Amino acid sequence: MKITVGHLYPDYLNIYADRGNIAVLARRAALRGHELDVQAVGMGVGLDSDACDLIYIGGGQDREQALVAPDLVAKGEAIRTAHSSGVALLAVCGGYQLLGRGYRGRDGSFMPGVGLFSHETVAGTVRMIGDVLLECEIEPGLTRQLAGFENHAGRTLLDVGAAPLGRVVFGFGNDGESGLEGCLIGRAIGTYLHGPLLPRNPWLADWLLAQALAHASGGEPPTLEPLTDELEAEAFRISAERARKRGGRR
Ligand code: GLN
To answer: What pTM does this model have?
Structure first.
């Protein structure tokens, strides 16, 4: 099956190898006989909410976020429509911040957001940097871990009742206080975790692929054939160990 990915602002929002997440999705799809068709959706380019099965947006410095924010808001309706029609979505760090209601940057300027996620972000004076380990339960009753790297000034405050992606075991997460990280609404995931995230967390890559395949087929998320993932498991182990050594949250 062909999976169409709308990659928002690959030229502006791509730090800490966030583009690597697309490479992982493409490889894991191909190993199961599927094809990932990645469409770059940049400045001034409309997003066709019917054409995508998965939307991806990476992270970036405040400067790049300020440049894309007005254009992203103009795509807001299409993003919300896509989400409500079952399109999967992954938003990382700066992209995650701008899919909330907005981000007040370090210079005090307010960058409006899309309002898909129920949160707002305010930049603090000290950056939150380092390896992170999370516990999450995307599928009810199944607790799993995610490991990654965070580097952000923004403190993201989830609205009461908004579901986080996970609970911080080691690291700062959304705001360094709540013990929560990211945001989850149906098939949409927002997170501060760079790295890139998916090479060291292959189960999440497969979860996103399954959601995208469900949208493409109009059916249920399929169970994907397991892969050996030796390198991925080692990358996770090292990342989780670095987070553990870092200590912090717990
Ligand atoms: N510029 C934002 C912040 O500092 C996001 C950074 C990022 O994407 N890594 O919080």
So the answer is: 0.97
